[in-house]
């Protein structure tokens, strides 16, 4: 079985590493996606355990079509009885990047007609369309004249972990937050601070990683559970095996924010997910946040300045840089922002920059290595440490 797993730009390699751990075969990074091969077990594991996946598709057909009649015929030629019965419901999710096919709703309509007509001619009955809660969600992707027809095994986007209300809009997508943590190299024995944590997305994702909690742990349903080949026993085995690995180690994960409502929401999330012992959240501004550990990591998502004057946001980023130097010596600091001009006012020399997208905003995920004392002494000490680690590995 081929799987096509959607993710954010910049997280493809992280997703590749996750799939290797799950035992996927023939893994290939693509643009905002990764393809691989596996069986039903992998499909179930991927939906439950992948932290950087947005949606998992199972391609069932590819073809070329230059007009609506060709599209109809190609869709009709697929044996839909393998995936659907006349008693089940379906819906079409169409995405078009084509000069020939410009209306995704019309694509969906032609696809629906072909499927319905095939059933009506073979059985005299037809499946119904249910856009709210279909038994089978069909994804149609067209690029120029090339079509890929897939079954959506996830349904609701996998970024919805279930630790916050559906109606709540966090400034940082959960998948992006998890990807940032995995990119940073953070480990559970390392102190982690987000001094501008908002509603706590980075903190929650870090704690879930530390506790080996699958991101789909609280989810009640995936689309594959309504498929004709759904194996309930296999799913139970996959889920129970993942849940056995959950543990709650002592961690030093701390967040702070000066917005009382955001802090309350973050604390509620930690309680709902039983992570209140792993995460400590303070109502404090970044100016007031002084770490208790002498070293560790900062990962934070400061305001980008959409609702601030340029001078105000520039000065705020200058303050961030000053506070990092003053209070976070010997910390590794990661900052994500879409405001490149403001980023220059941090006043620190970045050691790494990664391009990511927070929704439609192109962002830079920037690494700063803080140090006490002289920079030359810091570099020498770091080089000696890396040399010792390499020698220990060789031995």
Kindly describe this structure.
With 395 residues, the chain is an alpha/beta fold. It has two domains: 2-152, VC0802-like; 174-213 and 243-379, 3-Layer(aba) Sandwich (Rossmann fold), CATH 3.40.50.150. Helices cover 35% and strands 24% of the residues. The chain has eleven helices and 15 strands. The chain is elongated and about 75 Å long. Mean pLDDT is 91; it is low at 374-378.
Which strand-content bin applies to the residues?
15-25%
Number of domains: 2
- Radius of gyration (CA) equals 24 Å
What CATH first level of the largest domain would be assigned?
Answer: Alpha Beta
Strand order of the largest sheet: 2-3-1-4-8-7-5-6
CATH topology of the largest domain: Rossmann fold
Number of separate helices: 11
Distance between termini?
A: 41 Å
CATH architecture of the largest domain: 3-Layer(aba) Sandwich
Concise synopsis of the structure shown:
The chain is of the alpha/beta class. It has eleven helices and 15 strands.
Key descriptive features of the protein:
395 residues; alpha/beta; seven-stranded mixed sheet; eight-stranded mixed sheet; 15 strands; 2 domains; elongated; VC0802-like; Rossmann fold
Task: Give me the secondary-structure topology.
Elements: E1 2-6, H1 12-22, E2 25-30, E3 33-37, H2 40-49, E4 55-64, H3 68-77, E5 89-97, H4 104-123, E6 128-129, E7 136-143, E8 146-152, H5 174-184, E9 192-194, H6 201-210, H7 232-244, E10 253-257, H8 260-272, E11 279-283, E12 296-300, H9 310-327, E13 331-337, H10 340-343, E14 352-358, E15 361-369, H11 375-394
Parallel strand pairs: 5-6, 5-7, 9-10, 9-12, 10-11, 12-13
Antiparallel strand pairs: 1-3, 1-4, 2-3, 4-8, 7-8, 13-15, 14-15
Helix pairs in contact: 2-7, 3-4, 5-6
């Amino acid at each position: 079985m081929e799987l096509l797993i959607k993710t954010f730009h910049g997280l493809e390699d992280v997703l590749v590493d996750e799939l290797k751990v799950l035992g996927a075969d023939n893994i290939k990074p693509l643009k905002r996606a990764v393809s691989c091969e596996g069986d039903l077990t992998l499909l179930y594991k991927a939906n439950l355990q992948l932290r950087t996946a947005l949606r998992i598709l199972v391609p069932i057909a590819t073809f070329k079509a230059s007009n609506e009649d060709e599209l109809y015929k190609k869709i009709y030629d697929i044996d839909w009885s393998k995936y659907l019965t006349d008693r089940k419901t379906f819906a079409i999710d169409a995405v078009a990047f084509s000069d020939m096919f410009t209306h995704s709703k019309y694509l969906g309509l032609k696809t629906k007609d072909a499927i319905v007509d095939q059933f009506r001619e073979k059985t005299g009955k037809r499946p119904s369309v249910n856009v709210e809660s279909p038994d089978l969600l069909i994804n149609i992707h067209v690029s120029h004249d090339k079509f890929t027809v897939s079954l959506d095994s996830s349904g609701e986007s996998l970024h919805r972990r279930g630790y916050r209300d559906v109606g709540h809009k966090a400034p940082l997508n959960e998948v992006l937050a998890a990807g940032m943590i995995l990119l940073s190299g953070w480990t559970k024995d390392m102190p982690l601070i987000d001094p501008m944590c908002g509603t706590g997305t980075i903190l929650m994702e870090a704690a879930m990683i530390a506790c080996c909690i699958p991101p789909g742990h609280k989810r009640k349903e995936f689309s594959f559970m309504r498929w004709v080949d759904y194996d309930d026993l296999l799913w139970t085995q996959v889920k129970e095996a993942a849940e056995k690995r959950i543990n709650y180690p002592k961690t030093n994960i701390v967040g702070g924010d000066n917005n009382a409502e955001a802090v309350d929401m973050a604390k509620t999330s930690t309680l709902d997910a039983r992570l209140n012992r792993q995460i400590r959240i303070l109502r404090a501004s970044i100016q007031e946040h002084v770490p208790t550990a002498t070293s560790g990591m900062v990962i934070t998502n400061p305001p980008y300045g959409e609702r601030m004057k340029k001078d105000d946001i520039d000065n705020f980023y200058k303050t961030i840089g000053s506070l990092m130097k003053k209070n976070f010596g010997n910390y590794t600091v990661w900052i994500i922002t879409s405001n490149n001009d403001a980023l220059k006012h941090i006043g620190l020399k970045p050691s790494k920059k990664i391009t990511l997208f927070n929704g439609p905003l192109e962002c830079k995920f920037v690494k700063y290595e803080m140090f006490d004392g002289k920079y030359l002494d810091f570099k020498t000490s770091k080089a000696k440490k890396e040399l010792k680690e390499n020698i220990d590995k060789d031995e």
